[in-house]
Amino acid sequence: MSANLERLVEIALRDVLDPEIGRSVVDLGLVYAIHAAPDGSVAITMTTTTRGCPLAGFLKEAVGFAAGAVEGVTAVTVTLTYEPAWEPAMIAAE
Amino acid sequence: MPMASLSRWTMSYFAAALALLLAAEALAVAGIGYPAAGLGEPATLVLVHLVAVGWLSLAMAGALLQFVPVLVSRPLAFPSLALPALTALIAGLLLLTAGFATLGGWIDAPLDILPLGGASLLSGFALLGLMLVATLLTARPIALFTRFVLVGLACLAATALSGAAFSALLSGRGGWLGTIALLPEGLPFHALLGLGGWLGLIAFGVSYRLFVMFMMAPEPPARDVRPVLLLASLGLGLAFAGLAAPFAGIEPGASWVATALALLVLAGLLYGRGILALYSARRRKALEINMLASIPAFAALGLGLALLPVAVIARAGDGSIAALVFLLAFGWLGGLTLAQLVKIVSFVTWLETYASRLGRGPAPRVGDLVAMPRTGWWFLLYYAGVAFGTAALAIGATGGFRLSMAVCLAGTIGIAAELIRIRRLSQIKAADRPPAHERPRLFAARAEERRPDHVHTGTIAHPRA
Questions:
Q1: What is the ipTM, given to two decimal places?
Q2: A22, A57, A70: residue with CB nearest B452
């Protein structure tokens, strides 16, 4: 059930597109982890391409919004981290 | 998680910078300044300062006010000083150029406006320096990027101080300097510190960081970046010593200038190699207009740096030196600035307009705000003007230079018009534009409305049921 919810959240996050590149935060490797608890609460750990990115707050909110819209999700916690720092090698192959 | 906000007055800095570039180009088209006048004549001084202070320095200042907080993840210190600094800089430049016009006999005004202009510029740059240094020093540890900006700002202080002293000398108020001969010996050092240190070195440091973001390239290794900073700092330190030498009774000769220049050239060549590596290692294969239009700027840097020492060693005439300095100022610094303005203006405009829509449905991409390929054609025109202008200066073709500057002017007008169209969201379908009262203002960002309070919250809950 939790694994299924995590998969559904990941699919939903594919609709959150980086406005520069036009690729999703998942494809860009910005989403480090998605954990769903049995009660439907979801914890997402993500990063931005650089510290202090002016988009950081907006991306974080967009990820929370998209995950919260998934059927079965009761609460979303989004945490920004810079450990490890994002690097271009994390981008999924096209 | 601290989030850098939008710099409210950056667009005003850019608008003033572009207006002054257009003014300088129009004067050059009209045949005012070098090569119709001598290198040290008032007409040339007007043109040089309109470009160096009006265009390049204001654009650099506006960009730093936006990006220094982003790059060190700290809010801008003393943001309310941004507008007073801009006012002091514009007023200072106008007074200074009016002073040069008085020296040239075109207008009849007291020569005291020269040091008044110098003092106003000094205070404007001091306010700018205060904001930037206070912001940079709040971030620990001091990053390599920060060191580039700090050394550049130290050079700005030396350039502005020496410029203020020169303006006092030119107005006949330099008695306090006694017999110390700052002019004309100090001029090459003043130019090296301004163009090489404040504008050049900071452009080096900022581009390392921004290009990594713009092209999704790996960070350049510190072992490749440090030698650039070290060599440039040595060269600029030597230039500063050359400026201060007369106070110790030492007369810096041509070899002093040549050594400082050689160190800067070496730093520039290493920097160029690093930038080439960033372009090759990028993950973002399709280059955006800002990175495409920067390529001729780097070509100008490479050519200028390779030929300048040759011209100095071969004791080539004023024409060759002027041509290479023009190539570096208009081709490298000017071209790079124009190219990155397109990116900065479109990104800031997108942030103001569409950032809050992120993840909530379709929204235009940042690149959709820029009219392509039209913007590219304007850059082509601008760079064609620079190339012909460089050649015209080298062969001493005064008429050819005026014609080239007309081509540059046409390209610049086109780019400025595109920047206005970006702010007005002209490329976006009417249905995707916000209501008129919510659209970006031309000259000031809606900074206070874009500091979302959700940034510090850890939990966002949107239960469906």
A1: 0.88
A2: A57
